Amino acid sequence: MHSSPDRIKPICLLNCSRKTENNMGGQEQQTEVYKCNLSSQAQAIAKSELREDEKTREHCLAQFRDWISKHPSIKKCRTDAVFLLRFLRTKKFSLPLAQEMLERYLTIRQTYPDWFQNLNIDDPDIEAIIDAGYLVPLIKRDSHGRKVILSCAGRFDPYKYTSAQMVRVHSLVCEALMDDEESQVHGYTHLNDESGLTMGHLSSWSFSDIRNMLGCIQNSTPMRHKETHLVNVPGCTMKFIELALSLLNDKLRSRVLLHKTLDELRQTIDPKILPREYGGEVPLADMIADFKKLLREKGESIKALDDMFIEISPKNNCASSEGLGGISGSFRKLEVD
Fold first, then answer.
1. How far apart are CA 103 and CA 111, in angstroms?
2. What is the CA radius of gyration of the chain?
């Protein structure tokens, strides 16, 4: 078994409490002394790219917690520093944008429970999809310090599993990674091997689901998506890929790179970090086993996310079919970095 140098530490205790009718002014707050665990390199990047320093971080965390405690619709939410830093770092410490993204994150979890709730590696179907090698984070980071997530379309059976189960696997993987502070700062690289992508995969998706799923990724998921590499895209699926890309904002679309072959991809990504099956050093099976161990370590904390609660009304539902308009504004007005 290969152990990862980027092992994610268990998250802090959930700091949530429901408001009562007699206590609408706020939720109880636990005092947390935050200790920055970023490497010196990550701290430098956080300062230069995200405007993060100790004073800014402390101020924003305090303001964020106070805002949550007084929010009329948020009834239960994590308020530990690592969780809130997901949003602050994604939005470069713009507190209003971080708050808006948190509203959306909480809302989509409740609006699409089949996609975002009850995520568990002990679910037989989820475990089978991960065992097949459909989606796995690589053990080593890329040259930019980013966590790399490999997706292999041909390892997902569209005749046995649904598109909702596909999204659930992605959601589980993301939740297992998002509290890692190095990744919050450096961001993520996505490698998508589309060999084996068939019309069976594409026909399982409605246009509405594609639009809503991509809206959730770019507007509600607190991850810095830095690069997405597509390789071995079958010619018959290019129209579908072009449609999906057209639904992304300009910034994310500019970060999607297409490669005709693996050799071309390996000129961009250090082949040593890839699974052995792609020219690397560590077998894919070992990477899967390593990641499943992490998923089990984080199982309870991921399950506890389902306890978070925001009241949703038709006029503030961010998952409406009208282009995914948000609680406090429009998804289309926000940028993702």
1. 12
2. 20
The better pLDDT of the pair 122, 26 is held by 122
Among all chains, which residue has been given the structure tokens 């009208």?
322
Residue pointed to by tokens 């707050």: 29
Give dist(CA 89, CA 57) in Å, integer.
Answer: 10
Tell me how far apart the alpha carbons of residues 179 and 264 are, in angstroms, rounded to a whole number. 32
The strand pair at 147-152 and 135-137 is best described as antiparallel
Cα 15 to Cα 12, 18, 32, 49, 84, distances in angstroms: 8, 11, 10, 29, 11
Query: Is residue 315 very low, low, confident or very high in pLDDT (cuts 50, 70, 90)?
Result: low
> What secondary structure letter does DSSP report for 76?
E
**Is the pLDDT at 302 greater than 70, yes or no?**
yes
Asked whether 150 and 138 are in contact (CB, 8 A), the reply is yes
**Total residues belonging to the chain:** 337
* Residue for token pair 């997901």: 86
Match 């706020």 to its residue by tokens: 26
Tokens of 77: 């939410």
Q: Token pair of 17, please? A: 């409490």
The helix-helix angle for 95-111 and 81-90 (nearest 10°) equals 110
Give the containing element (helix H, strand E) for 226.
strand 225-231
| CA-based nearest residue to 309, from 71, 32, 24, 90 | 71
Which residue type does 203 have?
A: S
pTM: 0.84
Evaluate whether 219 touches 336 at the Cβ level (below 8 Å). Answer: yes
Token pair 């965390």 is at which residue?
Answer: 61
How many angstroms separate the CA atoms of 134 and 131, rounded? 8
Among candidates 208, 225, 217, 219, which has minimal Cα distance to 325?
Answer: 219
Sheet order of strands, 135-137 included: 135-137, 147-152, 188-193, 225-231, 256-259
Q: Give me the pLDDT at residue 140, please.
A: 96
| CB hemisphere CA count around 163 (13 angstroms) | 15
Residue with the two structure tokens 């040593």:
272
Interhelix angle 163-177/284-297, rounded to 10 degrees, is 70
